[in-house]
Amino acid sequence: MTTLTIYADNDPHTVLAHHDTFEPIRDALASIGVEFERWQANQPLSPTATPEEVMAAYQEAIDALKQKYGFVTVDVVSMHPDHPQAEVARGKFLAEHTHSDFETRFFVDGSGAFYIRSGGKVYMTVCTRGDLINLPANTTHWFDMGPKPTFKAIRFFRIADGWVGNFTGDTIAERFPLYEAAA
Ligand SMILES: [Fe+2]
Questions:
Q1: Would you tell me how many other CB atoms lie within 10 Å of the CB of residue 3?
Q2: 9 C-alpha vs ligand 1 centroid, how far in Å?
Q3: CA 155 to ligand 1 center in whole angstroms
Q4: CA–CA separation, 58 vs 60, rounded Å?
Q5: Cα of 60 from ligand 1 centre, angstroms
Q6: How far is the CA of 10 from the centre of ligand 1 (A)?
Q7: How remote is the CA of residue 102 from the centroid of ligand 1, in Å?
Q8: pLDDT (tens digit, 9 = 90+) per residue, 43-65?
Q9: What local confidence, expressed as pLDDT, does residue 183 receive?
Q10: What residues have a C-beta under 5 A from ligand 1, the ion?
Q11: pLDDT at 37
């Protein structure tokens, strides 16, 4: 289930707000400049669909987003618990960081948790199938794909190395609930 849990950034033990329906999640994220949408596939999609089939199923929504923000590259990534790099992949963006490009992900399947830090609060957003999340460049955040990472996601890029993490050095992520606490 898609959820948004909001904490003060200095108190990971007190939930300030919790939402599990679309509009409140969209509105709360919009208030900090993060876009959140739900997309429908325009054709049935099997779990084993190729990247080309995935793109075709969401072609109109992909084109609209590319047009709106000038995304140049779009690809499809998958992660599963048996992937040899699953643990390494989880650790990669588990500490607080920013990017010089948008971090834009559409969850074709599976799930993952974005933790967005803004205005003294942390917005823990668990994204699931059908969710699009769009973090503008320089948004402070971290991402937890959980101990058994499972997702297929469409990624959007404007610049070649925009996905590189600029780590803040703050250990805040270690103090907040892991993905599995919300799953
Ligand atoms: Fe990131």
A1: 17
A2: 18
A3: 12
A4: 6
A5: 25
A6: 21
A7: 9
A8: 888 989 999 999 999 999 999 99
A9: 58
A10: 93, 103
A11: 97
Domain 3-182 sits in CATH 2.60.120.10: yes
Residue 122 CA to ligand 1 centre (angstroms): 15
Where exactly are the structural domains of the chain? Answer: 3-182
Residue 48: partners with Cβ closer than 8 Å, 6 or more residues away = none
**Paired tokens of 173:** 């992520």
Which residues are within 8 A (CB) of 91 and not within 5 positions of it... i.e. 6 or more apart? none
**Segments in the chain below pLDDT 70:** 183
Residue in this structure with the two tokens 């707000």, named with its chain if needed: 17
* Total Cβ atoms within 10 A of residue 30: 11
> Would you say 116 and 32 are in contact if contact means Cβ atoms under 8 Å apart?
yes
Amino acid in the structure at residue 36: F
pLDDT for res 162: 81
**Ligand 1: centre distance to CA 14 (Å):** 25
Question: Other CB atoms closer than 10 Å to residue 26's CB: what's the count?
Answer: 17
DSSP-assigned beta bridge partners for residue 118: 121
Q: State both tokens at 119.
A: 């205005």
82, containing H or E segment: none
Alpha carbon distance, N-terminus to C-terminus of the chain: 8
